[in-house]
Fold these 2 entries.
Entry 1:
Amino acid sequence: MSNYIERFSTSERVLHWIVTASFFTLLLSGLGLYSRLFNGYFTFFGGGQNAILIHKMCGVVFFFSSLYMYLNHKKDMSTFDTDDKEWVTKRGGYLSRDSAHFNIGKYNPGQKLFAIYVAASTSVLGVTGVFIWMPTSFPRWLVQASLLTHGLMFVASIMFVIVHVYLATIGNPGTLDSMLYGDVKRGWAKKHHPKWYKETSGDNP
Amino acid sequence: MADTINQTTRKGFLVDTSRCIGCRSCQVACKQWNKLEADKTANKGTFENPRDLTPALYNRIKFIEKETSGEMSWLFFNERCMHCGDAGCMKVCPSPGALYRTKEGIVAYNKEKCISCKYCVSACPFNIPRYGADDKVSKCHLCMDRISGGMTPACAKACPTETLKYGTRSELIAKAKAAKKVLYGEDDLNGLGVVYALEGPPEQYGLPATPSIPLSIFLWKDVIKPLGILGFWGSIGAMLLHYVTIGPKKIEEDDEGKGGSHE
C-alpha cells in the first residue's frame, strides 16, 4: 500500500497556481499604483502605463480563476460541523505547543474562512477594479469609494496571503506536497484531516 | 508626500467676481495661447457656454442665474484649476513628475509622464482635471510657459475689467483685504493659488464652503497606506514569531509509522 494519498487533483493544482501567479503579478504591478513609495516596481513592467495594462489583464484572470476555484469547492468550504466549532474554540491548536487533535474533514475551519474571504475579496476587488478602470464613466463618489475599498482589500489580502503561505509551508510540514505533486503522506492526513482520511481511504486511524 | 511651497513668493490669481462682465475673453485667450480646439456645444437655453470644462477648455465663465425680487441677475464665476497649496491630484498621482509644483507655486503637469490612471480626477476637491482623446491629464497650468518668462497668463492679459489679476499671491491678497473684500481660498488647502472675492456665499457658486481633499483619498493615502505597510511587516513578523515560539505542527514518527505499516 502506498504511503501517499491524493489530496488535490491535477486540475485543482493548476488552477491554484494560475490564481497564485495572477495574484503576485497583480501585487507587483499594483504596488506602484498604491503609493509613489513603490514607484520602482513599475520598472518590472516597463513603466507605469504598462503596469496598469498588465494589472488590468491579470485582474481579469484572477477574478475569474479565483471565483471559479471557490465555486468548485463551495460545498466543502461553506459548511461547518460541530468538530469545526471545537477547532475554532481551541484556535486549531495553533496557540499552544501541546498537541491537539481535532476530527477535521477535508478542510479545517481556518481554511474554509480563508476561502470565503478570498471569494468575497475577489468579488469586491473585481467590482471596484472596474470602476477604477473607467473612472470617467462612473460617478466620482463611486470611484472614490472604490479606490479606498480596493486599497483596503489589497492590504487585508496580502496579510491573509502571508498567513496562508506560512501555514501551508513551514508552519505545517508536509502540506506543500498537496499543491505540488497532489499527494500527501498518510501520517499527515491522519494528523490534520482524520475525518477526510477515514472517508477517502476507508482506513480507521 | 510633503511638497514645499514658498508662501511669500508664490504666484497666483485674485478673481474679483464683482468686476466680471461675462465676456469670456479669458476662455478665448486661453484657447488661443494653448492652441486648444473649439468644442462643439449645444444651446441649452442659457448664455453659459460651454457648460463644463473639457480637455480643450482650461477655464470658463460659469453663468449663475440669480433671482432677487422678480429681477434676474447673473453671477459670473471663473472656473479653473485652483492650484491648491495642498493638492489632491499631486497627493494621489503615482507617476513622479506628471503633476508637479513649479517654483512659482503652481500645479503644473507633464503629459509625457502621465500614465493615464486618472486618480487625479477622483482626488481633486473641485473636480477639475479632464482626460481627452490622448488619455492624458489636462487642466489649467497657469500658462507656465508664459509666467516662467515673466509674462502674464493669457486669460489675465485678455481680461478687460481686471477681474482676473495675476501676481504675487500675498500682495494680491493684501490689496484685496485693504479694499475690504471677503476672500475665498486664502487658507483652505494650504492656500488656493486662485483666490476669489465672491459676491455671496461660496455655495451659491457651487463651491464647497471649506474645500478639502476627498475623505476617501485622505483615508487611502494617510491611513490605509501606513497601516498597510505596518500590517505587511507585522504579518511576516507574527508568522516568524509563531515559528520560533509555538513552532510548526510536525508529523510525529508515530503518525508516520502507523501510516506506513498499516496493511
Entry 2:
Amino acid sequence: MVGLVGPGPDTTATTTATTTEDPGDGRDARQPRGSRYVASHVTKAFNGAEVLHDVSIVLEPGSVHSLLGENGAGKSTLFKIMSGLYEPDAGELVLGDERLHGLTPRSALQQGIYLVPQEPTLMAHLSAAENLYVGALPRHGRTRLVDWKRIGRESVSYFTRVGLDIDIETPARNLSIAQQQLLECARALVHNCQVILFDEPTSPLTPHEVDVLFELVDGLRSDGLALGFISHRLDEVISISDQVTVLRDGRFVMNAPRGGYTRDELVTAMIGRPIGVRTRVRRSSDVTDRREILRVEDLAAPPTFTDISFTLRKHEVTGLAGLVGSGRTEIAEAIFGLRKADRGKVVLDGVPLTHRTPRECIDAGLIYLPEDRARNGIFGEVDIGRNVTAGIIPHLPRRWHLIRTDRETLLAAGATARTAVHMQALGSSINTLSGGNQQRAMISRWLLAEPKVAIFDEPTRGVDVGAKDDIYDIVADLATSGLACLVISSDLEELTLICDRVLVIYEGRIVGEVEGDDVTTARLGQLVVEGAM
Amino acid sequence: MTTTLPTPPAPAPGPAPVAAPSSTRRPRGDIGRRDRNWIVSLVVLAVAEIAYFSFSVSGFFGGGSGLLALTEQFVDIGTIALGLAVVVLAGEIDLSVGTMSSFSGIFMAVLWQSDHLDIWIAVVVALVASSLIGLANGLIITLFKVDSLLVTLAMQFILGSVATALSGASPPYGFPTSFVRIAGTGTIGPVPYQLIVFAVLAVGIGLFVSRSRTGRAVTLIGYNRPAARWSGIRVDRTVVGAFMVSAFMAAVSGILVSGYYNAARDDLGDSLLLPAVTIVVLGGVDIFGGRGRIGGVIVATFVLGYLTEGLLLRGDSSLTATMVTGILLIACLILKFQIDRRNGDDPFAVLRARLARVGRSHGRADL
Amino acid sequence: MSTTVLEPRAGRTRDVLSSHVVRLLRMREIQLLVAIGIVVAVTTAAHPTFVAPGNISFMLADAAATAILAMGQTVVVLAKGIDLSVAPILGIAAVLVAFPAQDLNLPIVVGLAIVLGVGLVLGAANGVLVSIARIPPIIATLATLSVYGGLQFILAKGEEISNIPNSYAALGNDDIVSGVPWVLLIVVALAGAVTFFLRHTNTGRSIYAIGNDAAAAHRSGIPVQRVTFIAYTLCGVLAGIGGLIYLCHVGSVDSTTGTADNINLTSIAATLIGGTALTGGRGGVAGSVLGAIFLSVALTAMVFALIPAIWEPAGVGALMLLAMLFDRRSAVRSPSRTRRPRRAP
C-alpha cells in the first residue's frame, strides 16, 4: 500500500519527465519515471488450450507499445498475466531490474503496474469518487482513517484530466459505459503507476472521448511511463504507437517500431494472409425465390430504439450494423421475445407473433445465436449432446413421458455432424471445445429446431481465424438452403463478406440500408459512426 | 428432418475444416465422472458407518431387520431432501420445507378430526394445499424477481405460525389403523412401508430429474439461467414447478411423520430443514444449481440417517448427533471443494463460481 | 457526453459528499421511522397504554439483542455473505457467562471479555471456512449452526440457568430515563462504532467493495480473503455481545436459547427490512437497528391487538415479504444489465 502513493523507487528523472499539472495538493508533483517492463517467453493454457505460446514483449519507459491481433490472439491474456490476474505457465516478468514472482493484482499495483480492463468493472453502488480509489483509499497519516476530504478534493481533478464531467457522488451504476471506461483510465492516474496497460479502452468511446484519452496517453508517455495498448481500431494504433507487436493464435508474429511497417503489413500479419484474399462468400442474386419471410413493423422501445421496420427474405443474408450501444442487439432481442417492445409487430411467414417468447419464436421457426456465448449460449459443464438438444426439449422423443435418451443422442449426433463439430465425444462437456467449435455446436442446436429465420449476434466473436471462414460458410449454406439470415456484427468487413444487404442502426434508428455492390466497409463505416452519408 | 435443412458444409474442399488445435483436446476432469466418484465415496462411507455401529452398538444391526427398521427414523427427512434437491438444482433454495412439512401433517389431521373427512381424502387435500403454497412461493419469486432465500424464509415463518395455530392446544392424534400402517409404522415382512414409499418417491424424482422434459429444463436453468432463456426454456414456469415439487415432497414427509408418531406434530420445522439441506449438499448437489444427481441425495440420506441413529443408539444426545453431522458436512465440503479446485486450471474459477449466482447481476461472471 | 471542460469544484463537492452520505443513510431510516410512527399511532389510538414509558422501554430493550445480531449480519451481508450461525454463537456466549455469573457472581466486565472471546473464536471459525476453505457462506454457516448448536447443548449440560445476579438484570432492563433503557444506549453506541468502521476505515470500505463485485475488488488489490474473514469475525463478536445483552434482558439461558427463539432468521429479517441488499454492497447498520426496533414494535402491537403469540413468526414473515416488495431492488436476484445508448458528441 505504501508504495502506491508518493515517489517511485527511482526519482532521478533521466528522461524528459515534464512536470504535469498537479492533480491535487498533498501529492508529489512529479510522476515517477517509468521502468522498462519485460514479459519474456510467456506461455499460458486454459483447460488445456494454449492461448499464449512463448510470447515476449518489451515495454520501454516513455513509449507506447501496442499489441495487435484478431479476437482470441491472446492479447488480453498477455496483459492480464502482466498485471497479475493470471499466472503464466512458463516465462517471466521483469520490471526494471526486478524479477516479479507470483504476481497478484495487489502486488502488481504495489509495483506500479495497472491494467485498464476491456470492460469496466466498477462497484455499482459506490460513488464515482470512491470507485476511483478502490483498493487504495487515501488515509490520514496518523489515524489511518479514510480521508474523505481528500477524496472529494482530488477526484475532480482526476476526472478532469480524463475529460469526465460527472458529479463525483454519482453511483457507478448510473454512469454510461463510456464514462465508466474513462473512470477506469482515471484510476491508473490515482495509482501513480510506472506501467499502464490499456486493454481496448476505446471501443465504447466516441471520437471526441478518444481524443481526450489520447491526449492523456501522450501526457503519460512524456512523463516517462511505460504504456501498453490494445485496440481493434488500426488507425488509432498506428497514430499512437511507438512500437507494435502482432500476435496471432497466441504466437508472436512481428514487431516493428513506428514507421517500420505499413498498414497492409500489419493486417497481413494479423490475419495470417494477405488481405484481399477473403472474398465475398456468396450472392443471393443467383437465387430466384426471395419471398418475404419475416416482417418487422414499427418496433419500438424508447429510448433504446424506435421506428424499426424491415423485412427479411428467403435465401438472403441481411446485416445489422451499428456501434456497441446503438441498439442493434436490443432490437434483435425484442424480435426474439427476450425483451419487451412497447409497440410494433413481427410477422413470420405470414403468421403474426404477438406474445413473443423465445419458445414461441423457436417453435415458429425463428432462432437466435446470442452474442455472449459463454453467458447466454452454452451450458459450459454440460455435455455437448445436451447442449445441442437444449433448444428442442419439448419436442424430444419420449416414451411414457420419459425422454428417450438413445434417440436424443442420435438427434444430437446428426446435428453436430451437419455442422462438422470437431469433438472427442458427444458426452464430453462443451467447455472442452474451442470457441469455433462451440459456435458450431450452437448452430447445430438451432438446426434441430428447423428454422426459417436465423439471427446471428456477433457470430465470430472469440472465434479463431480459420473457424471464422467456416462460420461464414455455414451462414452462407443456411441462406442457400432457404433461410433468411440476420447477422449483427461490429466487424464491418465481416458484413461486407457475407451480407447481401446491410441495415445500419444509429442511436436506435435505422439510418440507412445498403445493398449489393454498395456494401463496402467505407460506406458502412461512415453510416455507423456518423448516422448519415 | 425436413428438406429445409441445409446440406452439411462440404468438408473436403475449403480451408481445411479447422485442423482443430489438438491442444484443446485435453481430457478435462469429466464432471459426470467426478460426480459418480463422489457418490461411490458416499456409499463407501455409508457401509463403513453401518459396519462400525453394527459392531459397536447393540441393537443397531438387529440381524438386518434392525437396520431396516431404523430407516423409519429418517426417510421423512430424505423425502424432504429429494424435493429440496430439485429446487437447488434449479439454482434456488427453499427454506420453507420444514414448516411446510409440519403444516401438511397438521392440516391433514385437522381435516380428518374436525371436518370428519376420510383420512385418505384428507391426505390428498393436504398434498394439494401444500403444492399450492409451493406455487405461491414460486410465483412470488418469479413474478417479483426476488431472492428465493428471502421469500421462502418468510414463508417458513408464516407456515410455522399457521401450523401451530391449526393444531391448537392438543394436536390431533390416533389416526385410523390403515393409515398408521401404510404411512406410519407398518411393515411388509421386515421392510417398513415408509421405506417403500421413500423408494418409490426416490425413483420418481430420479426419473423426473434425469428423464423428464421439466427435469431437464430444471438442470439447464441451474447451470446457466440466461442461456436457458435463450434456448427457449420457459424459465419462470419451470422454476415455479420446482417449488411445487419441493412443497409436495415436504407435504408427503409431513404425512409420513404424522403416521409414524400417530399424531400431528407442529414442532418439527427446523429439525427437519437443516438435515434436509445437509443431505442435499452432502449428496453432491451444487448449491448454485445445475450440477448433482438424485442418486447422491438418496445415498446421503442413508449416510446421514444411519450416522444420526447410530449416535443416538449409542446414547448421545440429539444435539450431539447434530454437531457430528455438522462436522461431517464441513469435512466433506472442504474435501469436495479441494477436489473441484484442483481440477480447474483457472485461479479464479472458484471465486467466480462463488460469485456466479449473485454475480450474474453484474454480468461479469465471465472475466 | 458533455464536451465542456469542467472546472474543479472541490468546495461544492464536499457539500455534495456530505449531503449525499446523509441521503444514502437516511433514506431507509426515514421510511422505517415513518412506519414505526404509523404502527405506534394506530395502536395507541386503540390502546393508549402502548406509549406508556414502561412499554416503550420494554419494546426497545426487547429489540436490543436482535439489533446487535442484525448489525453483525449486516456486515456479512454487505460483503455478499450470510451467517446462519449467529443464534448459537449468542447462545454459547450467554451460557458461558451465565454459569460463572450464577456461581461466582462474575462481574459484567469479565462477562463482556468472555463473550468477546467466544464471538471472536466462533466468528473466526466461520471466517476460515468461508474465506480460506471457500465454502459457500450459506452452507458453511449452516454447518457451523449445527456444530455450535451441539456445542451449546454440551456446554449448557442440558440445564436452564436462571439465577443471574441482579446487576445483570439491571443492565438489561433498567432505564436511563423513563422509557429509555440502558441497553438502547449500548445498541446506539455499537451501531455508531460499526457505522464508523464501515464508513471510515479501509477494511470497512473494502467490505462494500467486495459486496459490489468481489472479482473487481480482487483486481483492485483488495485482499478479498482477509477482508471476508474480518467480516465474519466481526459478525461473531457482535453475536457474542448480543448473547450478553440477551442474558441480561431475559435473565435465563438454556441449551437451545437463540436457536429456539428464531433469532437467526429474525436478524436476517431486521437486516433486510433495514434496507441492506442481500446482493451485497448496499446498506448499513443504522437501518438494521431500526429494522429490529420496527419488528419489536410491530410484534408488540400484535400483542396489544390480542393476536395470539403463535402468530408472531407469521408477523415477521409478512413484514419481510412486505419490505421485499416495497424495495425490490434490495432483493432482486439479477437485474438485467442494460447498456444505455450514447448521446451524440
